[in-house]
Amino acid sequence: MNPHPHRTRNARDCLSLVLFTVLLGAFPISPGQAEETSVPESATWSSLKPDVFGNRGIEAASGIIAIDAPKRAEDAAIVPVDLKFNPGKAAGRIKVVTLIVDENPSPVAAVFKFGPDAGVTHLATRLRVNAYSYVRAIAETEDGKLHMTQTFVKASGGCSAPAMKNQDEAMASLGKMKLRVFPPNAPGTEAMNRATEMQLMIRHPNNSGLQMDQLTRYYIPAHFIRGLTISQGNRLIMTMEGGISISEDPNFRFEFDSKQGEEIKVEAVDTEGMKFENEWPSEPSAL
Amino acid sequence: MAQSPSRRTVLKCGTALAAAGLLPISIPVRPAFAAEEALPVEEIADGIFAFAGVDALMTKANRGEICNVGFIIGEEAVAVVDSGGSVAEGRALIAAIRAVTDKPIRYLINTHMHPDHCFGNAAFADTGAVIVGHRNLPRALVSRGEFYLSSYRESMGEALMREIRIVPPTKLVEGEEMLDLGGRTIRLKAWKPAHTDNDLTAFDEKTGVLFTGDLCFLRHLPTLDGSLTGWIEQLDVLKAVRANRAIPGHGPIPADWPGALEPEQRYFEALTRDIRAAIAAGVPLADAVKTAAQSERGNWHLFDEYNARNATAAFAELEWE
Ligand SMILES: [Zn+2]
């Protein structure tokens, strides 16, 4: 679908390099691990995988992590993706989850790292999906193994673009945050789950910067949330290293093992070095 | 074509074709192309012509001719409202203009950024027309133009896409501005974010005809690509425009004014009511969009193509209330 493979490749390389560097720092590469072959083949993924995971082996998720996204991206700018974790099925907890949109100019949407006792069981966010693409999530468990699951999303029809709808509004309220704490057994939560569900929203254009200005022929600089830390008291819940495939106004709905009475703190930093901080009580918010 | 051309239109097209065959030099199309068959326009009011697009997605078969386009003839010059969904449609629109007048095309007004309304801009390159748009239109085209050019390649096909260029406006409108066509003034108004963040309307003071762009949809489900609350709030301002007829962005032409706004207002009310209720109950976005505004399903064409998308955009916007 993309008529500019060369440009896309360059942009992709430079953006994935940023995240690649982060990943290299985080995990030693273990060349001995065998490649799991049961995962569906995709030419894009085959060329992308070494950039992100080197030559590490990746196994099928087998229930450790599950992904859900609509079959068709209704709005290319806002595609909901839902991840469920079942660490009971793995040897050890999930430490890191990497979320990838194969065909996007910047495929690595986000890398989430979870605190050792955060107990995150569910994480939903929203993505930009530029073209027909696999959306995949790769979980790393404490034993260093990688487990992958994926779903295919068809691009939206009509004039839906993965771009901002209301650019002035996005900038006018930059950095504004909202945290919702859901009461137990709210719709969309797992029944009988003791985890607490919250939703964090951050106003930010999360601008891709990959479009070329037709008049000047220069690329617009990217402006997005690159780092996010959510903690409770002194306990880390999760961090996110983000990219431009996360939708405008980044939105994270998650379930974790909340400690009653301890405040939720959020720190976000964007590519222009702006820092946004906020904190809230952890009791259910009025609906 | 969307509808059978009126007798008068047929006669005009016939004249144009004859002229094209006999005197090709008088037809202002690029020599590389055969003279385009004129778009079957209708005369809506004195000196105001419009073509009704089909309620469909843009395809190779319909050449992207899915929105309503038109033109206004003054004593000295012509203003065109939207160039259509392909350069081929733009050329056919120029042929329709040339079938009724040889006055110069002074302005091409782009009502907003969507490809069905401005993919035809390149057809006007040789006419000398100044392209007019909302102050935000160039920015929107920069953000989306390249994506539009690649994402429509599959449905529109290489032959149509090859000619299409993203041509931004050079005359920008903020607030209100008048265009003079000689003995005829067109009042342009740049709106706050609604259908998009670059909606522009054109009102002909002489006949009271309002070109609404996509601020008004009839029969074709409205599509939301700006601000739902902004659109709803501005419906009252829009209703107060003292027009007696309208050319909506999509749907039958001409339309009663302001009655033409009622169906979309009813749809927006259903959509906001359902989405607000879902947000309040904590229903996740992916689930909420499956049921929102389903009560409106029987009232619109292309409901299944666009409603979930509108609901998604509405959810992301209303969540911040
Ligand atoms: Zn439109």
UniProtKB/TrEMBL annotation, chain B:
GO terms for biological process: antibiotic catabolic process. One of its GO terms (molecular function) is hydrolase activity. Residues 66-250 form the Metallo-beta-lactamase domain. Pfam families: Lactamase_B. SMART domains: Lactamase_B. InterPro entries: Metallo-B-lactamas (IPR001279), NDM-1-like (IPR050855), RibonucZ/Hydroxyglut_hydro (IPR036866), SoxH-rel_PQQ_2 (IPR030829), TAT_signal (IPR006311). Residues 1-34 form the signal peptide. Keywords: Hydrolase, Signal. SUPFAM superfamilies: Metallo-hydrolase/oxidoreductase. Belongs to the metallo-beta-lactamase superfamily. Class-B beta-lactamase family. This is MBL fold metallo-hydrolase. It comes from Paramesorhizobium deserti.
